[in-house]
Amino acid sequence: MCDCGTRFIAENNKLVSGNTKSCGCLQRDRTSEASLKHGHSTRRHGETRTFKCWKNMIQRCTNPNNSRWADWGGRGILVCRRWRKFEHFLLDMGECQDGMTIHRIHNDFGYYPKNCKWETVLEQNRHSRHNHTVTVGGFTGCLTAACEHFGVNYFMVRTRLSLGWPVERAFFEPKH
């Protein structure tokens, strides 16, 4: 029985001589850690949140077979050359905390240090290109953020806008 919990068959003389120390998991981990010295991806411990974020970013921007390719690589969103190595990405961005995801500050530009930061999913959703962005009373942002900013009911404003009301009126006319 290996320390990792795997049952395997080994020759007695190799166990006694010390030539066999595991089921093979130690060699796999050494090989993996030699190629990924950052320690964010090992067979025994899996992948960290930061490594998964980096891997997914690379995949959606470089792999045409990725299901999310059309919204990233397919529309020209690239990963800078430096970030093709995880170690550089980690140095520039730091660790991804729980509840955070990578965000591109300018949605039409690629992934590079000055255009990226860690953000919560809620914050990131407010920057989606699919949002309805409004400018009202000197505030510009997604409809949800604008409604929160002015303390008005989102569904009421959304309904008014869908009926063709001017933005200022949709926000500030009292509810009848």
What does this structure look like?
This protein has helices at residues 12-17, 25-35, 49-62, 86-93, 121-125, 143-150, 154-162, 167-172, and strands at residues 41-42, 46-47, 100-104, 116-120, 133-136, 139-142. The protein has 176 residues and is of the alpha+beta class. It folds into 3 domains: 1-35, no CATH class; 46-120, no CATH class; 133-172, no CATH class. The strands form 3 sheets. The protein has a two-stranded antiparallel sheet with strand order 1-2. A two-stranded antiparallel sheet has the order 3-4. Strand 1 (41-42) and strand 2 form a beta hairpin. It is elongated. Mean pLDDT is 83; it is low at 30-35.
Number of strands: 6
Percent helix among the residues?
25-40%
Q: For the largest beta sheet, what order do the strands appear in spatially?
A: 1-2
Spans of 5+ residues with little confidence (pLDDT < 50)?
Answer: 30-35
| Succession of helices and strands | HHEEHHEEHEEHHH
Mean pLDDT: 83
CA-CA gap between termini = 75 Å
Largest sheet geometry:
2 strands, antiparallel
Strand content: 5-15%
Overall form: elongated
Computed Rg: 25 Å
Keywords summarizing the entry:
12% strand, two-stranded antiparallel sheet, 176 residues, elongated, alpha+beta
